[in-house]
Structures are given as C-alpha cells and as structure tokens.
Design goal:
Helix content: 40-55%
Largest sheet: 6 strands, mixed
Strand order of the largest sheet: 1-2-3-4-6-9
Number of strands: 9
Structural class: alpha/beta
Order of helices and strands: EEHEHHEEHEEHHEHEHHH
Shape: globular
Distance between the termini: 44 Å
Strand content: 15-25%
Amino acid sequence: MTSADQGWVRTAREGAVLTVTLDRADQLNAQTPATWAALAAVGASLDDDVRVVVVRGEGRSFSAGLDRSLFSADPSTTGGLGELGRMPAELAQERIREYQGGFRWLRSPGIVSIAAVQGHAIGAGAQLALACDLRVLTDDASLRLPETTLGLVPDLTGTSTLAELVGYSRALEICLTGRPVGASEALALGMANAVVPRDGLDAAVAQFVAAVTGPPVGAVRETAALVRSAVRNDPATQDAAERAAQARRLAELVGG
C-alpha cells in the first residue's frame, strides 16, 4: 500500500494499460488534497505508450468523496474548507485549479480512461468517475453529487462532464437535488456505459480495454479527439476537424 504522503494512490502498468487505484479501503477511498496531487502526478508522468488508463477504488466502494477532516472550519486544517474559505479569492481559485488537475488529465489526448465503479461514488468520487471517458458500474453502484445541499458546488470538473453526458436540465436536477443515481438509471441516462454484477466488473473492464486497444493506435486517438471536440464545436468547425484528422490518417496509411 502506498503511504498517506502519496495520497493513497497506487499504479500498475501492463503494456499499454495503466491501472490507477485509490487505495484507502478502510475509509471508503475518501479523498484529500494529497490524493489529487498524486493523481495529477500520475497524469504528468504518462508516456506515449500508454493507451488506456483504468481508474478503480479498492474495497467495497469506489470513493465516498472528501475525507471528513476537510469539512473542518478550522483554518489550520490543510486543504480544509475553513482554510480555503479564509484565503483571498485568487489564491483559493488557484488552489482549486491545482486540485482539478488531478481529474482533467483523464481526458488527455492519447489515452482513453475507464472508471470501474462499485458501491458508492459520492462527491469527489462521482466527479472522478465522470472525469473518465467511459464508466463500467456494478449493479449496486450509486453516483451522487451532494455539494449543493452542503452549501458548496461541484468544483472538480464535474459540472462540465455531467452536462456532456446527460444534458443541461438533467445535470441541473442531479446537482441541485444531490440525489443518488443508481446503476440502472445511470445506464439509461448515459452516465454509465455498462452495468454488470460485482463479480463481473473485472471481465467487463477487460472487454472495454481490449476493444479500445484493438484498432490502430492512431485511429483511436484521432477518433477520441474528434468525439471530445464534437460536444463543443459548431458543425462547421467539427467538419473541418474531421477532414484534417482523416487526411492525417490517410497519409499515414498510404505512407505505411
């Protein structure tokens, strides 16, 4: 097990697949600023041979969200809400920007990220799952974004990723009510790509990994980039991006 100083995050590499595991099962993989720093460091260390990143949580839950100590109003609690709330706005925003770096890299060019979610994924846990490209949930999984009910907002990239998946009105409802979204509903809404029994999670993730690593790497990376940009580009811009990507693929195929 990795130490607390490393944010309770461990990694394992097998060929083109990197598995990142939250390793704090006794605390339901509750997250701290050290966790986010460790995740960001993993993203910064990726090499070009990594094609798939699988994100998991050790034990019975993916992640129960923030470590309870962070809710302290005591300004001496490093990374706590009390410390952040007493900072000048610019400094607080810069600190949160650093935290977001532990999540945003999961949609970096060159990789496809897959969240393997069992049990609870709450708050920061749900946002970590949503930060990935694909999500495989066990049938007992539940995602929840309770930040608004606590007087806060989802600030770890969760609003943009959720809205991309389920649309404006449904994302707004999920965030404002803070209600849990069970696995079957998550599948129906597009928050999950597959729902499987708990004992089938590893096999289902392996199937997605095989599907992603099967086609030529250049085609997968270009296609992933196109789909990611499609949710924000206007049609003309996206058409141009498709033309450019296809020209690159054809040139490589002919040249090869």
